[in-house]
Amino acid sequence: MEKVFASIITIGDELLIGQVIDTNSAWIARELNKRGMPVKNRVAVGDNRDDIWQALDNECGRASLVLITGGLGPTADDITKPLLADYFGGKMVIHETTLQHVIHLFESVFKRPVSDRNKKQAEVPDSCTVLFNESGTAPGMLFEKNGTVFISMPGVPHEMKWLMEHHVLPMISSRFATGFIAHRTLLTAGIGESMLADLIADLEADLPGWIKLAYLPNYGMVRLRLTASGMDKDLIERELSRHFDLLVSRTAEYLVAAEDIPLELAIGRLLQEKGKTMATAESCTGGYIAHLITAHAGSSAYYKGTVVSYANDVKEHALHVKPETLAAFGAVSEDTVREMVQGTLSLIGSDYAVAVSGIMGPDGGTPEKPVGMVWIAAGNAEKTIARQFRLRFDRQKNIEVTAVYALNLLRLLILEKS
């Protein structure tokens, strides 16, 4: 059976200058993978007729399905619709259902008059099958050429998702024999990518050709992802589980989670299993650790709060760090973060606390305490541990890495591995 795959084309100058981050492609790729259709190519092009035309040509006859987002607005820089009319042939016509929908939205929902420019959203090439967009004004459009199905959708994420969920994904299931794709991911900490590769070299060598292993390193952690694809779902699931279980067993010393979840969520589940709570004291990260934790629904079950003690007087008055400690050792020191932990435990009443203090840059360092120097402590009523780290990134990445190191130090304490 011929293998099917998809390509994604995103359109807009804003994507190429970094003004807007392309979240559409990531969401589309995940949804297609769930349905057994791999994405073989993703390309972003600007609002340039020749570039868009070339992107369409590159995928025509090669991909089974090409999903296009962007360029369907009512302004002059939205050139996708007339270009599609030229590329696939035909003339522009009014789609009456869409026109009535646009009029209804403006007059009844937005409570303002509908302009001729707004009504142009109802114009479509007569060579397409219109995909009605209840979530917005620009309809989706389906074309076919040289055995490839092309679908153009708005770039507005909620409109694109509505069209995908109500039109595109059901069409894929009914039209394409997509097979089956499955992923299994585990998260490790405390071991580098190359050492991890050596540790599991024989297991990787034993993988059949239809199971692929990917290494995904990030901030002192490495995810291992197994991906299997084929037509026999039972075989894929059985063999993928067998090889994944071998990986989990081999990496047990460094294993954070045997599923694709972030570190902070793994710690949350660990705390819930033990019936314990945590809190944070943040200086250099400015609340970023709290943000990571509270981004997950249900975190109130184990996370009690934070003190963002950016200034030394807040460390003294809120967390009871001794003035003599700050005078003798400074804010970025082992003694200070240890006292921050104990002050947090006393103030917030949690079972565990983690504290950070460092110099994130780009300035503020000294020869004794250079930019990137961070002290982290984690503790409970019985024990406090502290570690120093020397980071080498820009300010934002230093903050993000510090958060990961802090959470992992807390994880090790909870597991009594520190």
List keywords for this structure.
single chain; Molybdenum Cofactor Biosythetic Enzyme, Chain A; CinA; CinA-like protein; alpha/beta; 6-stranded mixed sheet; 418 residues; 41% helix; 3 domains; CinA-like_C; CinA_C; Alpha-Beta Plaits; Maf protein; 5-stranded mixed sheet
Description:
With 418 residues, the protein is an alpha/beta fold. Helix content is 41%, strand content 24%. It contains 16 helices and 17 strands. The chain has helices spanning 13-16, 23-34, 49-59, 80-88, 96-109, 116-119, 157-175, 193-199, 201-205, 233-250, 263-274, 288-294, 312-319, 323-329, 334-348, 395-414; strands spanning 6-11, 39-45, 65-69, 92-94, 123-125, 129-131, 140-145, 148-153, 180-189, 211-218, 221-230, 255-257, 278-282, 303-308, 352-358, 373-379, 384-390. The protein is globular. Residues 7-175 form the MoaB/Mog domain.
Give the radius of gyration. Answer: 27 Å
Structural class: alpha/beta
Rounded to the nearest angstrom, the distance between the terminal CA atoms is 53 Å
How many DSSP H or I helices?
A: 16
**Tally of structural domains:** 3
Fourth-level CATH superfamily of the largest domain: MoaB/Mog-like domain
Number of strands: 17
The first-level CATH class name of the largest domain:
Alpha Beta
